[in-house]
């Protein structure tokens, strides 16, 4: 990525601030690497766990297992709703951080001029405004996480109440025994772990796509080397 950025034409460097380029080289690359290392273990471990537990639950009672899994689409809809919001917050966080890095790089590089004109206090106040903006974005992201956790728990509780009522009704009707319910609920609860892992992976993917797009922009932008070969 560093080499690709160096090979980009001067126009690209004039359009982007140094802080933005620094984040592409560091944070965006770390995000891309982290995604690769997170995807495979989640698919292999949680995917295999989900298949095994689902097979056992289906062997106990197919109808009730399918009924319990009907809550999954609700989680998917909820995840898609919040994933877009997380992505927008991620864009704001990257922009806020790039502005801070750019300002620090520019001002520290010209510290002699700043001290010569006695502008230390003015520059500190200007820099503090960028810090406050970054703090507001961080708070916004945290509140979004809290809201998602809250709505997720509400969805889970409502569906659990409905499922418990239905299972109790089946016991009264003589369709199920207490032992079958205990065994079935034990396996259904174990399905929640893999489901939440997949939903978390989807949300993380949608959020981290912001960094991937920024890296893609670097590699797809016509470089000076490609122009030289074309000539």
TrEMBL record:
State the UniProt keywords alphabetically: Membrane, Transmembrane, Transmembrane helix
Instruction: Please state every residue range assigned to the domain named ABC transmembrane type-1.
Output: 1-207
Q: Does the keyword Manganese apply?
A: no
Subcellular localization, per the record? Membrane
Q: Which Pfam families match?
A: ABC_membrane
Membrane topology term reads:
Multi-pass membrane protein
What CDD domains does the database record attribute to this sequence? ABC_6TM_exporters
**GO terms for molecular function, please?**
ABC-type oligopeptide transporter activity; ATP binding
Name a GO CC annotation attached to this entry: membrane
User: What's the name of the protein?
Assistant: ABC transmembrane type-1 domain-containing protein
The lineage, from the top, is: unclassified sequences, metagenomes, ecological metagenomes
């Amino acid at each position: 990525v560093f080499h690709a950025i160096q090979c980009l034409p001067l126009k690209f460097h004039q359009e982007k601030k140094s802080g933005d380029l620094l984040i592409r080289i560091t944070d965006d690359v770390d995000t891309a690497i982290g995604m690769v290392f997170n995807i495979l273990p989640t698919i292999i471990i949680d995917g295999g766990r989900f298949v095994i537990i689902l097979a056992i639950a289906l062997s106990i009672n197919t109808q009730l297992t399918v009924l319990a899994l009907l809550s999954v689409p609700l989680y998917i809809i909820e995840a898609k709703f919040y994933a877009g919001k997380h992505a927008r917050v991620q864009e704001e966080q990257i922009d806020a951080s790039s502005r801070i890095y750019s300002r620090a790089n520019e001002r520290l590089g010209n510290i002699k001029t700043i001290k010569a004109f006695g502008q230390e206090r003015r520059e500190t106040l200007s820099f503090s405004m960028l810090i406050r903006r970054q703090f507001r974005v961080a708070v916004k992201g945290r509140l979004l996480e809290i809201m998602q956790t809250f709505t997720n728990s509400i969805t889970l509780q409502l569906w659990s109440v409905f499922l418990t009522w239905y299972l109790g009704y089946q016991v009264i009707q003589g369709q199920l025994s207490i032992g079958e319910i205990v065994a079935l609920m034990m396996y259904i609860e174990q399905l929640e772990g893999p489901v939440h892992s997949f939903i978390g992976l989807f949300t993380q993917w949608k959020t981290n796509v912001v960094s991937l797009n920024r890296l893609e922009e670097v590699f797809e932008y016509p470089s000076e080397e490609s122009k030289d070969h074309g000539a």
